[in-house]
Structure formats: structure tokens, C-alpha cells
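1st attempt posting a full record on here, be nice pls
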Amino acid sequence: MKPGHRGILVTCNGHVRDCVRDSYRILNEYADELYGPVETTRCEEENQPDGGSDEEDISVKLQKEAEAASKKRNAASFRFQSVESGAMNCLFIQTVLPDPNEIVVKLMRDLSATKKHKSRFILRMLPIQAVCRANLKDIMDVVGRLGDQYFLKEPKTYAIVFNRRLNNDLSRDDVIRELADLITSKNAGNKANLKNPELAVIVEVIKGLCCIGILPEYYPLRKYNVVELVAARDPPSSSATEPAKAKDVKGVGGTVNEQPEPEEQIKDAAAGEKANSPKITTPSDEASG
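the predicted structure (as C-alpha cells):
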């Protein structure tokens, strides 16, 4: 994961390879539906008439076939590529799609409507519109640029969701206060709403990098938790989904002033943590709102 990337931040329950495989399958399925299947190149050279010596033909043909095979292989995997995030049980699926929100929001809405499981290993999928360095200036620049699309023309209600992993240098209160001031400066009608905001500004800090996204329907879509979306309104007796639900609720925060627990606790939470949503503490945001 590097500054300038965009993609999907995926949390899992420890089965990393299975999570990557399912992420590819699901994302490619929805990308094909939204944008059409990836075009593959054909070896048109096979139909070209022979010319020159046999030795030259064979050499040129082999080179062109190798180039075509490489293009085909790259095209098949070009939309999504798993890269290291630097944190346990947390994956980053890089994409070249212009807006990761479009594909992930459609997935979450479908899960909410159908209640059909698509993976036993994925816990949460957060669309990330930009990755930057984990310092206040870069975060302000990225949110300022993205915020022009969402907060400039019409007033919106918002919440700032700040989480960090393996980083104690960045001040949570400073980030929340400065971002709230920035959003208010774009339109005086923008107001903080911690219970049901129109937009959630996601700030996920992992080591020296920061993943940023501005997401709609954050709380109605269960904070983009695929387990909770499918399990919503299920009978309490469906114990099969409870451990995974508890893990992600504890492991990835969804409020302005909520900090995720260490990854080791995410993995151990299946032993019997409560699956209720974490309590909301919002001193910084109330001050900014």
C-alpha cells in the first residue's frame, strides 16, 4: 500500500488467503456487472500470412504470443490487486476503478436486501478513495480535495470515523477537530450528526499511511460490515454468525472517537465477545459541530 493508491480495505478473521480469494471473486463479479467483463487480447498474429524466412516467422511469432499472453494475464488481474497493508487481519485490495464507492455500496445494498452470504471469511469492506501519508497536512489535503465533491454545493450531515493501527504519533483529537473545521468551511450548512449522518468521513491510519473515504449510508449499511448486514433481523439462535460479528464490531470502530483494539484481540474476540454495537463517545465532534 502506497500514497496515491485507492481500493478496498478488507478485514478478515485470520484466513487471509481465503479472504483474498473471496474478495477477488466478489469484486470481479460486481465489476463485470457494473462495467462489463475485462476485454482479453487475442493473438491476431496467428491469422497473419507468412512472410520471410521460417526462422524469422517463428521468432517473431513466439515474441508476439508471449506479449499477448502477458497482456491477457495483466488484463485479468488489472482491476484488483491485493497489496500489503502492514496490519494483521487487514487487507488492501488496490483498484484502478475511478470510484471504489460505486462497487462496494452496490454490494452492501445487495447484501442488505438479499441476506445472502457471499463469504465466510470477509468481515468488513471499506471503499478507500485515497491513500496518503499519516500526517495532518496530507490528510487535510486529501479530505479537502474529496470533500469538494460531497460538501461544497449542498449542506450535508456528517460523522468523522477515526481509527488507527500501529500508530501513536497522530493525534485523534487534532485530526477530528481540523477535519470538522475544514468541512464546515466548505459549506456553513454542513453539520455533525453522529447517529445517522448522510456521509461518513473514514480515516483509517495504519502505521505511516492513512486510508481515506467519504461513504454514504454508513450506519444504515451496518458500517459496511458484511456479516452484520446478512445477519440483521435473523433469529438470535443463529449462532454461526455471532463470533464473526463480535470480532469486527470490536476490531474496527465506527464512531468519531472510537479506537480499535489490537489485532490479537480481533482474532480472540470470537471466544465470546458481545456483538452489540460499541458505545459512542463524541467529545471532539460535539465541540466541532
